[in-house]
Write a structure and sequence with these properties.
six-stranded parallel beta sheet; 329 residues; Rossmann fold; binds beta-D-fucofuranose; seven-stranded mixed beta sheet; alpha/beta
Length: 329
C-alpha cells in the first residue's frame, strides 16, 4: 500500500514539474498608459497570451521612459524568457540593447512602433500601423470634406497636434500630414505642436492655440485622446466643436465614436491596437519550428466620420454611427 502511495506521489510530482517547466514565457516591454489606444493594446495582448494554455506573460510598463524599457529588456535577457514583444517609446537609441537581445538568441517581435535600427537587427516580425498613410488620410479627409460642403476653394486655417516627439507614430503621421497638405493648398498651416498623445496635454495645447491664433478652422490631432482634450478646451472657450472647428482624430477608440455620434468630433482615422490575433499564430508557428524573416504586417484600417462616403483614394469613409456597435475597443 505504502509503495503504491509513493509511486503515485512521484507521478504527481513529475507531472507538476514537467508542466511548470513547459510554460512558454513571453515578455512584453510596453511604453506606458498614455491613451485609450494603449490600454486596448495592453489588454488585448495580455488577454491573448494569458488565455493561451501553457503560456505565461511577463509584463513591464516603461512609464514613458526609454531608460526603464532598456532596463526591462536587459531583465528579460537575464531571466532567459522565450520570446520578447517590444514597443519603443521613441524611435532611436535601441541599437545596443536590441543587439543584446539578438546575441541572447531570444526571438523578438516588434509591436506598433518600429525602431530606426530595425534594418540593423534581427526580428521575427513587426506588426504596426502604416503611420504615414494614417497621417495622409487625416488631412485628405479634411480637404475632401471641405470640398463636399462647397468650401474647396476657401482658405482655411489648420493646426496639427502631434504625438510624442520622436515616436514613429508621430514622425510618420507628421510626414503624412505634411505630404497631404501639399495637395490642398487652401489649407493653411497656422500651428504645429506636440500634445504628447495625452488628453491633458491636448487640452493644454488647444487652450494656448485658442489664445494665440486668431482663427482655427481645422484641428488635426494625431490621436483621439488629444482631440478629446482639445474638445474640452474648445467648449471652455465658448466655441462649438465639430462646427466652429472641424476635428479629425486618429486611432478610432470608443470615446471617439461616441464623440462623432454626439456631433463633436468629425472624423477618426483608424489605427488598430489589436495585435493578439497576429502575435499568437506567429509564436505558435515559431514553436513548430517555422521561420520568419522580418515580416512586416500593417493591418487593414478604416476611416470613420459623421456621414460616410468621403473618398480618400485608398479608402472611403464609413459613417461611425453605422458600425459603433461592432467596435471592439
Ligand atoms: O496612436 C496613440 C498611442 O503608437 C499607434 O500611441 C500608437 C499611438 C497611438 O498613445 O494613441
Amino acid at each position: 500500500m505504502k509503495k503504491i502511495f509513493f509511486v503515485a506521489l512521484a507521478l504527481v510530482m513529475l507531472v507538476c514539474v514537467s508542466s511548470a517547466s513547459a510554460d512558454v514565457v513571453i515578455a512584453f516591454s510596453q511604453i506606458g498608459q498614455e491613451s485609450d489606444w494603449r490600454t486596448a493594446n495592453t489588454d488585448d495582448l495580455r488577454h491573448a497570451i494569458e488565455n493561451h494554455p501553457g503560456w505565461k506573460l511577463v509584463y513591464d510598463d516603461g512609464q514613458q521612459k526609454q531608460e526603464n524599457q532598456i532596463k526591462a529588456l536587459r531583465n528579460f535577457i537575464t531571466q532567459d524568457v522565450d520570446y520578447i514583444l517590444f514597443t519603443g517609446v521613441v524611435s532611436t537609441g535601441w541599437d545596443e540593447v536590441l543587439k543584446e537581445v539578438n546575441e541572447a538568441e531570444i526571438p523578438l517581435l516588434l509591436i506598433d512602433r518600429i525602431p530606426d535600427c530595425a534594418d540593423k537587427i534581427d526580428y521575427v516580425a513587426a506588426f504596426g500601423g502604416d503611420f504615414v498613410e494614417e497621417g495622409r488620410r487625416q488631412v485628405a479627409w479634411a480637404g475632401e470634406y471641405l470640398k463636399s460642403i462647397g468650401k474647396g476653394d476657401t482658405d482655411v486655417n489648420i493646426v496639427i497636434m502631434e504625438g510624442t516627439t520622436g515616436a514613429s507614430a508621430q514622425t510618420g503621421r507628421t510626414e503624412g500630414n505634411l505630404k497631404a497638405l501639399k495637395e490642398y493648398p487652401h489649407l493653411k498651416l497656422v500651428g504645429q505642436q506636440s500634445g504628447n498623445f495625452t488628453r491633458a496635454e491636448g487640452q493644454a495645447v488647444m487652450e494656448s492655440w485658442l489664445k494665440s491664433i486668431d482663427k482655427i478652422d481645422v484641428l488635426i490631432a494625431q490621436n483621439d485622446d488629444m482631440a478629446l482634450g482639445a474638445i474640452d478646451a474648445i467648449k471652455a472657450a465658448g466655441k462649438v466643436p465639430g462646427k466652429d472647428i472641424i476635428i479629425v482624430g486618429c486611432d478610432s477608440v470608443k470615446a471617439a465614436f461616441d464623440s462623432i455620434v454626439a456631433g463633436e468630433m468629425n472624423c477618426t482615422v483608424e489605427c488598430t491596437p489589436l495585435y493578439g490575433k497576429f502575435v499568437v499564430p506567429t509564436i505558435e508557428a515559431l514553436i513548430r519550428g517555422e521561420k520568419f524573416d522580418k515580416t512586416v504586417v500593417h493591418p487593414e484600417e478604416g476611416v470613420f466620420d459623421m456621414n460616410g462616403g468621403i473618398d480618400l483614394g485608398t479608402v472611403k469613409s464609413i459613417k461611425a454611427a453605422d458600425v459603433i456597435a461592432t467596435r471592439q475597443y
